[in-house]
Each structure stands twice: as C-alpha cells, then as structure tokens.
Design a protein that fits this description.
Elements lengths: L14 E5 L16 H15 L3 E5 L16 H11 L3 E3 L6 H8 L6 E3 L14 H8 L4 E4 L10 H5 L6 E4 L1 H12 L8 E5 L4 H11 L5 E4 L3 H8 L14 H13 L3 E3 L3 E5 L8 E4 L8 E5 L1 H13 L2 E5 L12 H12 L4 E5 L1 H9 L8 E3 L2 H9 L4 H4 L5
Parallel strand pairs: 1-2, 1-5, 2-4, 3-4, 5-6, 7-8, 7-13, 8-9, 13-14, 14-15
Antiparallel strand pairs: 10-11, 10-12
Length: 395
C-alpha cells in the first residue's frame, strides 16, 4: 500500500487535521487516569508543531451517544496534553460549528486546537457526509495517528479524508502498519501465537488466519475452556460458550490438517468465585462441579514459557486469566515475562489487557512492539482491510 508519512506532507503554515486516539480512562475527579495514549501521539504532534503547522487535534472519548455529555468532555485530556507539551491547547466547545470554526480560523503557526469530543455529534459514528465535510473544511492536510480507531469507518477516519488535498499517516500509525505487516509476511521461525481472553467468538477469525501462518498456537484464558470442552473435558462452572463448541472442534481439526499445533492448558488455578482471595491449583479433569478455571496453572505457564523461549516471532493477544485479581494473575504475568526474556525474538503484543499486563509486569521496554489498537490489531492480523488505513492510500 502507498501511504505517505507525516514527514512527506507539506504542513508548514497549513491547517493540519490530526486524528488521534485519546480515548483514555478518567478518574472520578475528572483527571486522566492513564495518559499512555496521549503520550503515544506526542512525537507526531511535536513534529507538526515544530514545522509550523496550525494543528487541529481530534478524538473521541467514551460513548456519549451522539450528543454533548459533560462526563465525556475532552477538557481533562486537553489539560493533560498541554502539561506534557508545555504548550497551550485551545479546546473548542463543540466538534463542529461557529465556535470551533472561529478557534481554527484564529490559529497561528505552531498553535494547537483540540476539538471537543467527535462523538458529541451523531454524524461521527454514522459517517455522515455533512459532518465529514464540516470537519474537512477545517483542514488543508489530514494526518491519521489513531490506529486504535482505524477499523471504524467513521467521519473522522474515512468520510472527511476524500475532501482534504493532502493525507498521510502519523508516526504511530506508520509504526503499527510496519510491525503488524511483518506478521503477515515472511517471518523468522518458529512463529508462535499466544491467544487469550474471554470469548472464542471474538477471536475465531484471527485464530483461523493465524493457523495459516504460525507454527504453534497457545490458547489460554476463559476461551480455552470452550476448546477443552470441545475435546470432552469437564470444567465445573467455568465460562464456556456452548454455542461455539462445533466451531471450536472445526478450528482444531483445521489446525491439525494444516500442521499447526494448538496447545491448551493442562492445569488451572480454580475457585468458586472470581472474588475469591485465593485459588487452588488442579490438573485438567480435576475441576470440581462448583469451581471455575480462572487462570492457567503453573505447569501450563512453564510449558507456555518454554515454547515462547524457543520462538523467533511471537504475537500475543489476550490475558491467560482474570489477571485484574492478584490470585489469578500469575499465568498472564508469566507469559509477559517469557516474552521479555526472549531477546532474540520479534515480539508483538496487541490488545489493551495484554499491553496493560506487560506494563504491570514492568517489562514493556523489552517488547519489540506494543500495539495501541485491540480490535484494530486483531482485524489487521486477520487480514481484513481497515477502512481508516485504506482511506490514507494514494493512487
């Protein structure tokens, strides 16, 4: 695909519309709880400011249902951005309208305006043409640095782009495309995928795609329960998608036919409730009727770590258990540390929970690439065309 980078765009003295992903968690006191997504966009923002662009930054935050809602205002985000940059950030009172238009019109070279939450207007998620045209009227140049929203065909990611003369990818978007594209091409082998999380239904597409490229797939988390039940295991009260058992059997059969080994948990940490302060370790087949599997067990964690140690390319998406609870976090952190310890491998981690686990384990700096987009990275790996990326392609 032919996509220009931000360095290749004529931005000096121009109005540059920069789509970012500032969908960050807020504290009860209306502060930013985690500013990692803001910091991820700083290189692109600083580059544009340094080159004298008149910068219009835009993002969504939460799900305000197409109408203004003070609980989802970008005001605390703008304040945090200003603190990080040491620069003034002008927040508009609406995403489009007379007030926003005046703020944009008054921008001077190197100044920054932050549009109020794009989802305060129903036209954003509906990819409404009048709303898209209104956004485009602010801009001479369009830059997308919001990989986390690239799988959404919204007005700010797709609709407005055709009405702006110059377009391209920010540094973060460019890095995501480069690293994830590597996983779809020739890679160093063994190539291993580690897939976890709660639902098989969310991951079947990417699992099927990975089974045509990888050498082994390691499955943990609650979704492993469905695959184990499909093989005849009894798992007590564990979360199982009964309506996906046939699809799970079909996937396991296809993987075997393709010569891809699928490794499932051999032991678990179980409890009668997710709220339990502790769990007990038991082998597969030893889950009592009133218990549920809430983490992979130590034997499985060691086995998964050994496989990761031998790999030369690893993609990880999804935790191995309910890692938010200390009693059920060991398996997820074991995977995170195993990735960090394999310094010879290209390691790519995608998805909010997996990235959070890597950061909590204190090994984020030892991972080759942390993807900022959960759903977007999965759809990319699945081989789907992401509309926000396709919109940036030049003829």
């Amino acid at each position: 695909m032919a996509i220009l980078g931000v360095k290749d765009l004529p931005v000096e003295g121009k109005r540059v519309f920069l789509r970012v992903d500032f969908n960050v968690p807020l504290t009860p006191a209306r502060g930013v709880a985690d500013d990692s997504r803001i910091r991820a966009a700083i290189p692109t923002i600083q580059h544009l400011v340094d080159r004298g662009a008149r910068l219009i930054v835009a993002s969504h935050l939460g799900r305000p249902k197409g109408a203004p809602d003070p609980a989802f205002s970008l005001e605390p985000v703008g304040a945090r951005l200003a603190d990080i940059l040491g620069n003034e950030v002008l927040l508009t009172d609406e995403p489009v309208g007379d007030g926003a238009r005046k703020v944009v019109a008054d921008l001077r070279d190197g100044q920054i305006a932050l549009l109020e939450n794009l989802r305060f207007h129903p036209g954003e998620e509906a990819n409404d043409e009048p709303f898209a045209r209104a956004l485009a009227s602010y801009a001479d140049v369009y830059v997308n640095d919001a990989f986390g929203a690239a799988h959404r065909a919204h007005a700010s990611t797709v609709g407005m782009v055709r009405y702006v003369a110059d377009k391209g990818a920010g540094f973060l978007m460019d890095k995501e495309i480069r690293f994830l594209s590597k996983l779809l091409g020739e890679v160093d082998r063994p190539y291993l995928a580690v897939i976890g999380g709660a639902k098989v239904s969310d991951k079947l597409g990417v699992l099927d795609s990975l089974s045509t490229r990888t050498d082994k797939i390691l499955i943990g988390g609650a979704m492993a329960n469905t695959f184990l039940k499909a093989r005849g295991a009894s798992l007590g009260k564990s979360k199982i998608e009964e309506d996906k058992l046939a699809l799970a059997r079909s996937f396991l059969k296809k993987a075997e036919e393709r010569g891809v080994q699928v490794l499932l948990p051999r032991d678990f940490v179980v409890a009668t409730s997710m709220d339990a302060a502790t769990g007990r370790t038991c082998a597969l087949g030893g889950v009592d009727a009133d218990e549920m599997a809430l983490d992979i067990g130590p034997e499985t964690a060691r086995g998964f770590a050994d496989e990761i140690a031998r790999a030369r390319t690893v993609f990880w998406n999804g935790p191995m258990g309910v890692f938010e609870r200390p009693a059920f976090a060991a398996g997820t952190f074991a995977v995170a540390r195993a990735l960090a310890d394999n310094e010879r491998a290209v390691t790519v981690v995608g998805g909010g929970d997996s990235v959070a686990a890597v950061e909590q384990a204190g090994v984020a700096d030892k991972i080759t690439h942390l993807s900022t987009g959960g759903g977007a990275s999965l759809e990319f790996i699945e081989g789907k065309t992401l509309p926000g990326i396709a919109a940036l392609e030049t003829a």
